[in-house]
Each structure stands twice: as structure tokens, then as C-alpha cells.
Amino acid sequence: MNKPTILVIDDEVQIRKLLQITLENSEYNVLLAATAKDGLVAAANHKPDLILLDLGLPDKSGQEVLKVLREWFAQPVIILSVQSGEDDIVLALDNGANDYLVKPYRTGELLARIRSLIRRSVPGESSPVITVGQITIDLVLRVVKKDCEVLKLTATEYSLLALFAKNEGRVLTHHYLLREVWGESYVAQSQYLRVFIAQLRKKIENDPNRPAIIVTESRIGYRFKGNE
Amino acid sequence: MNKPTILVIDDEVQIRKLLQITLENSEYNVLLAATAKDGLVAAANHKPDLILLDLGLPDKSGQEVLKVLREWFAQPVIILSVQSGEDDIVLALDNGANDYLVKPYRTGELLARIRSLIRRSVPGESSPVITVGQITIDLVLRVVKKDCEVLKLTATEYSLLALFAKNEGRVLTHHYLLREVWGESYVAQSQYLRVFIAQLRKKIENDPNRPAIIVTESRIGYRFKGNE
DNA sequence: TGTCTTCTTTATAAAATCTTTATATCTGCT
DNA sequence: AGCAGATATAAAGATTTTATAAAGAAGACA
CATH: 2.40.40.20, 3.30.750.24, 3.40.50.2300, 3.40.50.300. Which one for B5-121? Predict the structure, then answer.
């Protein structure tokens, strides 16, 4: 459940800054580009979830950018422009824009239109399932299975296991685990970790006395071993 | 490829006429409705490819119509309204509108926005009847049955159940449920949720003391379990 | 106006989970 | 082997969360 990424292509630095702050406050990742060229490169490299495109770019017309973009970019594009002529709007929409806002626009409305487009742009998403050995974790459904059998985990146990599964094979330090699962102020509570690791092992290990999935790295942390 | 069908819901006869002519000239089939009630019926019967909805209807607020519609209608909805306030626009978009045009709008722009939405809309069908285990939910008629027997649910109970049914198997957090059913300002009222979950269980569970359909995920939320 | 339905609050019991404590076991080192 | 620090585990205790009934409030409707 990552934050969506939005690419802003606008040549005015103040607008870029303003949008960056606004969007980051609304829990988006923000990429910035000042020219058409940079914008297209950034779009290709980062595959943003949505693009905010200014029509008045120095190096290339925004309409051109839109056309080029639409040859491969399927995510939503919102045009921001000072041009309020109907011809511009119709052209942009027919070139593949999903929306067109005339500057100066209202921030709340822009955010609502972004929400609306992002909400609908998740068509064929396959629920990300992590499979490690006999353990299966469906992060969307929030279901953990061992050999097709559903396990009952508490919220904390689940966070811990999900964190391990996302870092299969890597050693996770006590400090890191405590900070990620319990929060910054619990980094000294190593005993928590021991208690919950024991509980998890009781539920997922074949022989909890000989842990094979969550192995302890003494004095450092724990490691989640999937296969071999 | 058939001509796309557009449903116009507006109480002013001149606007209906005008839109009908405009749209038919642009190769669309047009359906007309003058009230919220007729509009909802027409939407259910004809499954249009797009709806143009006026916010100022005599019998019911357009925002209400939108919410009810969105319980099962997945195709695009464009709001046409004399209201130009940001709050109205944001509310409509968050209620599921795909676009919002302030009257008087420009015809060319409206047509371009319609083209844009229809181009992008997936022909994917959304079955308006969900069956999960013994429970059947008709999202169009808003009727819930358990083993062919109609259950009497209040509006809130229905919204909650419909939301669950649309997300079968996945954990829905307290926060999410409260926001979707009651609205953003109620996200802290977890007690509501408990009360209504208890009421729902009394109505749909075989043994309300041992919930098998709506199971609680302590400290996280609830999960709607269909079969298995 | 009174009745009915539904929503909202309050109160309390029950359940689940988290936290702490106690003790046993392990690990690496001299 | 013996020690010290680190880890494992069970179980008691404390706290939070959940379930449920029921009372009060707010509307709808005739």
C-alpha cells in the first residue's frame, strides 16, 4: 500500500514548489520536472501514477508532450494551464488528457480531481502475495496461510511477520524491528521482540524448538529464511 | 460497435431538449429523466455508458443520487450544476463523480469531456447482485436476502453490509469503514461500528454469538467471510 | 400530537491482546 | 567447565478493545 507518485511538469519554480508542498501534505510522492524533455524522461523512468502537466513549457508545447506521452503512458494526466479557451481544452482532452484545470485553480478542487482519477486507475491489480516456503502472506486481504491453512495472528504478530516477509533472507536488527513495528520510543524494549518472536514461531514453525523460518542472529537480530 | 448511450438527469425541460439534440448529433443514444427517482430507475434498467447528472433536482439532492448510484454503477458520471462552490465540487468528486462542469458550460468542452471518459471507460461488467454464502445482496434494488428470505435493514446497516460484500475476504479497518459509511468526521467513533456490527450480526449470522460471516480482527477491523 | 423507526450515547461485562515478571536455556569466551 | 550476557518461554497481571443491552434523542409520518 505505497503512496501514489505524482509527476509535476511545470517551468515556473514557484508553482512547482507550491504543488510539491501541497501534494506531499496529501500523502503523495512528488517528482518535479521543469521542461518537456525532463518531464518525458522522468515519466519513462519512474512510471508515476499521475502527471500534472503545464501547457506553457519553454521547449515544447504541452499538447505535443501529451501526444508523445500517450503513446505509451496509460495513467491519468491532468492539464494545468492559463489558457482558458475552449479550443485548447478540447484539443487537450482529445489528445488524451483526463482533466483540464484553468489557472489559477483551487487547491481543494485539484486534490479532489486527483483523488478521483487515482481511485479509478487501479484496474487489473493482482493482490500482492508473498510466498516464502510454506508461508503465504496476502498483504491486501491481510491473510496469512501455512500450507493453505489460515493462521490467526494478532495485529502485532502480523506486522512483524509482514515486515520479515518483505525482507526475506536479510538480517533485521532488533533496533530496526522495534522501530518499525512498535515505534521509535520502543527501541529499547528488546524483551517485546523475544516474546512476540516466540509467539510467531509457535504459530508458523514446524518445530518451534528448532526454528527454521525465523532464525536468530545472536546479538544482532533475526532473519526470515524462506527456502534455502 | 453500438452507439454509446447517455442518460441525462435534469429537471429543466429546455436543458434536457438541448442536451438531447446536441448528444444525438454527436452519435449518442440519449435517455432522459426529470427526477432523481426516474433517473435511478432508468440507470438500473438501461445501464447507460455515461450519466449527465444535474445537482439541483426537485425530489432528492444530486449528491444523494450520486452516492446511491455509485453503490453499483461503475460507468462515468458527469455533474452539471449551477453551483460553482469548491465545497460542492469536492464533495461531488469524492462521492464518485468523474467530472464536474459549472453551468453555463461550453458545449464543445462538454462533448470533449464525454469523449475522454467514454474512451477510457472499461466495458467491464459489475454484477449488481452479490452472493456470498447464504447472503444475497441486490445493489440495484437494495434488497438483502438470507436463504431467499428478505431481511429488513436500516439504511446504515445496508451501507455497511454492501461495503463488506464488495470487499469479501479482506480486512476492512475501523477507520476505513467509518469513513466510507459515516464520513470523514466520524472516523473516531469506533463505538458506532461496534453497535452496528452487533445489529448486523443479529440479522445475518446463524449464531450471533459465534460470528462466522462478519469476523472481528481485533485492533484492526472486521472481515466479511463468504464461504470456506 | 403521539407513535414509530432509527440513530446516538452510555454503561458494563466479556474477551483479546499487550506488558511485565520470573526462570530456564543458550552462546561465546576465558 | 564456568561465567556473563543474551535469548526463549510460560504465565500472571494490566490494559485495551469488543460485544451487547438499553436508555435517550432526533426525525419521519400520519
Answer: 3.40.50.2300
